[in-house]
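Feature request, filed as a ticket because there's no other form

It would be nice if the structure record came with a short human-readable summary line next to the C-alpha cells. Right now we just get the raw output. Example of a typical job, pasted below so the devs can see what we mean:
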Amino acid sequence: MENVEIREFGRQDMALADEIEALAGQLTSSPAAFAPERLAVMASDRASRLFLLVAAGRVAGMLSMGVYMTPTGRKAWIEDVVVDTAYRGRGFGRMLVEHAVEYARQWAPVTLMLTSRPSRTEANALYRTAGFGLKTTNVYRMDITEK
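Raw output as currently delivered:
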C-alpha cells in the first residue's frame, strides 16, 4: 500500500490551504465560498477537527468533525467528507470514516452522526458498512449571513 497518513490539521498546515480548497470544491456542484481564514479558526477551535488524509505528500482527502455537549448527551457530527477524484477507489474514504469513529470513541458515550445525499450511493454504502444506521428525521437548514 502507498504511503498514507491521516493527521489533524493544525496551524502549521496553513500552507496546505490551496489543496484543501481544491478538495472543498469537489464537495458539491455549488460549493460555498472557501476562506482560508476559516482553517486558522478551526485549528484553534476546541470543538472542531479537520482530519487530512495525505498520500505520497499530497492532501488526498479530508473529513471535518464537531463534538459538543447537549442536555441529552454528547453529540459528534461528521461533515465535509471528500476524497480527491484522482484518489478515489483506494479505500481512503473508509480510512477517514474509521479514523473519525476511533476519534469519537474517546468521547464515549457519544452519538456520532452525519448526513449524505441519497444520490451519493457509494458514500451511503460506505456509511452503512461502517456501522451507521439510517435515522428517520428531517434536516432543516438556515444560513445566517449577517449579525
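Something like this underneath would help us a lot:
Residues 92-105 form the longest helix (14 residues).
The chain has one domain: 4-129.
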